[in-house]
Automatic annotation (TrEMBL):
Keywords: SH2 domain. GO terms for molecular function: DNA-binding transcription factor activity. The keyword Nucleus does not apply. This is STAT6 protein. Pfam families: STAT_alpha. The lineage of its organism: Eukaryota, Metazoa, Chordata, Craniata, Vertebrata. GO terms for biological process: signal transduction. The gene is Stat6_0. InterPro entries: STAT, STAT_TF_alpha, STAT_TF_CC.
């Protein structure tokens, strides 16, 4: 993890130097960077959902694992008291991913408006649709895990989480 942190710091420094030197990078560079950031966030969110599911299922739910795998899973598994914290982090990441999708939708709408004035406009909605579908798929997986863990989350946390889930889905549908 330290190696990854060091490499990340070096790459961020190089990115800052490039941006300082070339303030106006091509639009395709920014679009690709945005796509990679969303993809990474979505993968991290999917990993969180799998962690939550693994924490809920425990090693007994995986009979196909052999003994060394069970020992490894038991060593890396989080204690059950961390389930609410893990779910809250996952919901926070879901909201960040939602913001990225909504930002991209807003950019697409603005480009469509400018196209009325003669600006170039890429009408392909497939990447935006794929983002929305991927996010909604993860949304339903996470929502399912929260509903399964509702007894462990308590009477205070569950309504707040469900309200946040409803806000995420309604904002995606409305926009």
């Amino acid at each position: 993890l330290r190696l990854v942190a060091i490499l990340k710091a070096i790459l961020e420094g190089e990115k800052a130097a490039v941006l300082k030197r070339d303030r106006h990078l091509p639009l395709s560079f920014h679009r690709r960077q945005e796509e990679l950031k969303f993809s990474l966030g979505l993968q991290r969110l999917q990993h969180r959902v799998r962690e939550i599911q693994a924490l809920r299922d425990g090693p007994a739910a995986s009979p196909q694992l052999n003994v060394p795998d069970l020992q490894l899973k038991a060593e890396t598994q989080l204690p059950e008291s961390e389930l609410p914290t893990l779910i809250l982090e996952a919901v926070k990441e879901l909201e960040v991913a939602k913001q990225q999708v909504l930002k991209r939708i807003q950019i697409w709408k603005r480009q469509q408006q400018l196209a009325g004035n003669g600006a170039l406009f890429e009408e392909n909605l497939a990447p935006l649709q794929k983002r929305c579908e991927s996010l909604v798929e993860v949304y339903f997986q996470l929502h399912q895990q929260v509903m399964v863990a509702s007894a462990e989350l308590g009477a205070e946390l569950l309504p707040r989480l469900l309200e946040r889930f409803n806000e995420v889905l309604s904002s995606l549908v409305k926009r």
